[in-house]
Write a structure and sequence with these properties.
Elements: E1 2-8, E2 11-19, E3 45-46, E4 51-52, E5 60-65, E6 68-72, H1 74-83, E7 88-95, E8 104-112, H2 117-130, E9 132-140, E10 143-152, E11 155-161, H3 182-195, H4 208-221, H5 241-254, E12 272-273, E13 289-290
Parallel strand pairs: 1-7
Antiparallel strand pairs: 1-2, 2-8, 3-4, 5-6, 7-9, 8-11, 9-10, 10-11, 12-13
């Protein structure tokens, strides 16, 4: 995807960035005219006159007051990036288990660039030995990125992180107090123990909705009728907590162990969305996909 440099003290490690997401398996739709079945196009327009605005006449503006804007050019943004740093400079090392996954965004694979094999291996092996991760920052595409480098096998994963002010405080979530009995807690522990596994294995899970959607599309292409009768929704009702736990334990004890699905590559799905200028109201706009990358 891109190239960059990890600054490790006085050691500079040229690296290459690779996508860790397998987006080709996703199913996407195009927007069509309901009667003509032709694909729709999106256009920018000036709302007071309805004039279609060509791309070369579109500039970036920041709204500092109601309908008041300052214009920022691409050249200014480019110089602003150069005035900071595009190097992924490691600022600190932290125990990996102390980083809450709530801060994780998209992940990328990192590999050494030409001539950086030994320095790259040194960093990976040292992080593995210490069970630490490296925190770094760099600027690209008009924003500063906070990232975490963590070892994976013989390579690195660059985990995009959210800044602290981008994560809401849990205190905003109302959580009323409640009392549970020791007997209820013991049954809950037993249920957890029944389903406990040594480690998480992503290959055991598959996107069942995507598979059903693919089957639906294949059937429609063949001109077949598809039965889409929904399953009955479970009726929500207040039950005795102890009886529900006992029934849960009994059902799991009697049920056979589920067979593992065929292994699939692990995926980290997350895309960053960027708001674009207003579009013509006659066409709905799908969320724009943005690939994050580093450049050195």
């Amino acid at each position: 995807m891109a190239s960059g440099t990890i600054s490790f003290g006085l050691v500079n490690i040229p690296v290459k960035v690779y996508s860790a997401n397998e987006s080709g398996n996703r199913i996407s739709f195009n927007q069509l005219h309901a009667e003509k079945k032709t694909r729709l196009k999106q256009q920018m327009f000036e709302p007071t006159t309805g004039e279609i605005v060509p791309r070369d006449q579109i500039v970036k503006g920041y709204e500092y007051a109601k309908d008041q804007y300052v214009i920022v050019s691409d050249d200014e943004l480019e110089k602003l990036e150069l005035a900071t740093s595009r190097t992924m400079e490691i600022s600190e090392f932290v125990p990996l288990e102390t980083v809450d996954p709530l801060f994780f965004e998209t992940g990328y694979y990192i590999g050494p660039d030409k001539g950086a094999d030994r320095a790259f291996k040194l960093l990976v092996q040292a992080l593995n030995d210490m069970k630490h991760a490296a925190v770094a920052r760099y600027v690209t595409r008009g924003r500063q990125n906070l990232v975490l480098f963590r070892p994976l096998n013989h390579g690195l994963v660059m985990q995009q992180l959210r800044f602290a002010d981008e994560v809401r405080a849990q205190g905003e979530v109302p959580i009323p107090d409640a009392n549970v009995t020791e007997a209820e807690l013991n049954l809950a522990r037993q249920f957890i123990q029944q389903l406990s596994q040594p480690k998480f294995d992503a290959s055991k899970y598959k996107d069942e909705y995507r598979e059903k959607l693919r089957a639906l599309l294949d059937a429609k292409v063949r001109g077949e009728t598809v039965n889409l009768t929904p399953k009955p929704e479970p009726v929500a009702k207040v039950v005795d907590l102890m009886e529900a736990l006992k029934a849960s334990l009994a059902s799991k004890s009697a049920a056979p162990a589920p067979a593992a699905a065929a292994p699939e590559p692990a995926r980290e799905l997350e895309k960053e969305e960027r708001k674009g200028p207003r579009r013509a109201p006659r066409a709905e706009e799908p969320a724009a996909k943005k690939k994050k990358s580093a450049r050195g």
